[in-house]
Amino acid sequence: MTRSRKSTQAMQKERLAKNERAVKGNKKDLKSVRGNNAPKKKGFFRSLFDMLFGGRDVPKTAQDTIPYKHIYKDGICALPDGKYNKTVTFQDINYQLAQPEDQQRIFDSYCKFLNYFDPSVEVQLCFVNKFGNKRDIEDAVDIPGGGDNFNSIRDEYREMLRNQLAKGNNGLVKHKYVTFTIEAKNLKAAKTRLDRMEADVINNFKMMGVRAWSLSGTERVQLLHSQLHPDGREKALFNWNGLAKTGMSTKDIISPSSFEFKGTRDFRMGATYGSVRFLQIIATELPDDLLNQFLNMESALTVSIHLKTIEQGTAVKIIKRKLSDIDSMKITEQKKAVKNGYDMDIIPSDLLTYGEDAKNLLRELQSRNERMFLVTVLVMNMANTRVKLSNEILTASGIAQKENCALKPLDFQQEQGLVSSLAIGKNEIEIERTLTTSSTAIFVPFTTSELFEDGQTMYYGLNALSNNLIMCNRKNLVNPNGLILGLPGSGKSFAAKREITNVFLVTDDDIIIVDPEGEYFPLVTRLDGQVINLSQNSTDYINPLDIHKDYGDGEDPIALKSNFILSLCELVVGSKDGGLQPEEKSIIDRCVRKMYNAYFQDPRPENMPILQDLYNLLVEEANKGKDAANYIASALELYVTGSLNVFNNRTNVNLSNRLVCFNIRELQSHLKAIGMLILQDAVWGRVSYNRELKKKTWFFVDEFHLLLKDEQTASYSVGIWKRFRKWGGVPTGITQNIKDLLSSREVENIFENTPFIIMLNQAAGDRAVLAKSLGISPEQLSFVTQSGAGEGLLFFGHVIIPFHDRWNKETEIYRLLTTKLEEVS
What we know:
825 residues; alpha+beta; Vanillyl-alcohol Oxidase, Chain A, domain 3; Rossmann fold; Helicase, Ruva Protein, domain 3; 14-stranded antiparallel sheet; 11-stranded mixed sheet
């Protein structure tokens, strides 16, 4: 609160008289330094400050500076004066790149979110940028060596990741929190209301498409520890049982070695220097990216926004009172005008402007869903040296000044500023600005998503906006299915091979590739994988009728296999009258069951059925006078005893290799669709077998549109696509023929079950259709418009990130991944 000079002087005389004896004897200039357990005496200037401005008791230890009473295991924090709160953390969404209507929807939803909090609730939005542990970041991109022939490739891949890491600020970790505080008689009463508010807050975020969750007590302690140790070198290692045994409190865990508040405008926390300033809003309008500009600084800082709703009736009275004051000032000016002999309608423009603004504000409060908030915005910069801190403050001040605002120092209030910047929901800075809901919501907490997951992750390029690494694992998604879409030369095959290599190097998962163009076998060969060549001139054979007891995993394996054979026969027979007729399907199913029942009576490899066996059973049915059986047998004859009998043999290749590539480049064009369907079923057999071993199976199929071109293969492929997830399969479709893909009647089922998409450069017509199908904004669409190789959009669940990926061409791994003739190894 700002005090006038007169009131300050009067208070100074009064308090100086009362405390003259205490102050007179204290002549030492004591340092305001407190160790973790070291008591601190009051210095003269500190005593004088307390007399002038009041405030809470001066802390004697570092723990006393942190003003909470207790943190409970369920995440509730007890503050003084009977207040309790909880903290919810939320992730980012792509607000800056969203379509205008989506931005408006998000903004309106955020306004409703703010209006949810009534005057009894104090809200703190806390945005923390801190440096992570450098070793942890390097470990995240490390690929350990192995006792095999691939260490040279591992070394190149590891070096590439480290070079890419240096281009961004991945050492800077960004988190967003909202803390809501209430008053309650006791913990039990507070818990009931806080739990209800927690569910409402998370649901409000969910409606905005934002993932959010409540912090436990352990997570809140770790959060405060990270704020009080911003260098990221130390970790909060504790457990609740250990605290009870040692007699320590959570404050002992989170407190830094010392606090030092000697300076008027900065402070020291352990080895880190900091400064807290408040944002003075001068502009009548603010851009919705102001908060984003602060958070995009490549430094450790915290932006804290404290909000408290003013009761609606009180807010209306305040505005009406202000209007009355303005009217009185107008009358005064009119009296002056009459007295001085000029037109009384000439009123200072400021009064007219203020009057109109006040009327508009009153109208909004009364007729629109607007409320009035008391808002305090604090920016805390931190650095390891005072010189660097000064530079960070200048940068932040420049951002504010550019938007017609100012970052004002908190003279002699750095300790209160630090406390108000911690995510504990306590505001000790009495500098408030009244703002409406819309004006408060202009500090939109959403910018552009980053994607850097913990644990076992894959590399997918650099964020085109921040240059940060994109490291994630689509096995963590609810559904890991993926698509890679792009024009020739856009880097489509390169992206697929990069992911294959990454999976091979960092996991124990199996990988199967269907390669219609012969682009993958150099990489597969280098990784000691199995290349299987399927053509009329090859001696490698795959039996489409292979089956094993786990093929159905609880379901009838014969029924599941029969479904595949029906799809195969429909493709062979063609589209007569829309496909197979009911009688024809019944005959095929009867023959399939008879064939496999005979096999399971003596399931030896040499007894495994082949197409010839199915053909013979159909001929038997035809000899019984079944014309439908004769029709199917005649169509199948070409693939059994005719010139296209590629798949009428028992499997003679080893499919147990970790990395298998089916090369079908030399397979005749009219056999490719059949071949891809058969291979898809072979992959299904491998997936079902690996499921028993608790092992994932990655499946990459190039020219994916071929599987959706025919209705017969499309329906079977979609069924497999939906079923792969629960069986441990990770399928990926790769195609450049977007029009063929989108023309399929099954494409909606594919898109609905595909949360992972790598979209590279697209043709104009394809862009428009994809934008409509996937909800891509014009800003996002620009990243797949005339973009270079390796540039595009990454869809990861609800996150859409523009990316680019450039490699050193003078490496072995690049020559294995590229498909450019002049660069191929």
